[in-house]
Design goal:
94 residues; alpha/beta; Trna Endonuclease, Chain: A, domain 1; 4-stranded mixed sheet; two-stranded parallel ribbon; 6 strands; globular
């Protein structure tokens, strides 16, 4: 927790030791999420990252709007991923 802010997940990449801020969104997300993750990335850079250690961000949402797509264009520090959830219920015999 960063003051009143909550980073969903903070991870460390195995391949290069980068710190990775992960922001999860349940549904559709917009460009406001970019401001949020940039705030977290910069806080981590200032308070947790070691000299020369990069900090990346990943936004994970069910869907994204056009504003978010344009907001992250050209920003190599932020990656956007979408998810799909599919539940299949099957009867179980005991």
């Amino acid at each position: 927790m960063l003051g009143t802010w909550n980073i969903d997940y903070l991870a460390q990449a195995k391949e290069n030791n980068d710190l990775v801020v992960i922001e999860l969104k349940r549904g559709k997300t917009s460009d406001a999420t970019v401001g949020q993750i940039l705030r977290y990335i910069n806080w981590v850079k200032k308070n947790l990252a070691e000299e020369g250690q990069n900090v990346q961000g990943i936004i994970i949402a069910k869907s994204v709007d056009e504003a978010l797509k344009y907001s992250v264009m050209g920003n190599s520090d932020i990656e956007v991923k979408t998810y799909k959830v599919d539940f299949i219920l099957q009867s179980s015999k005991y």
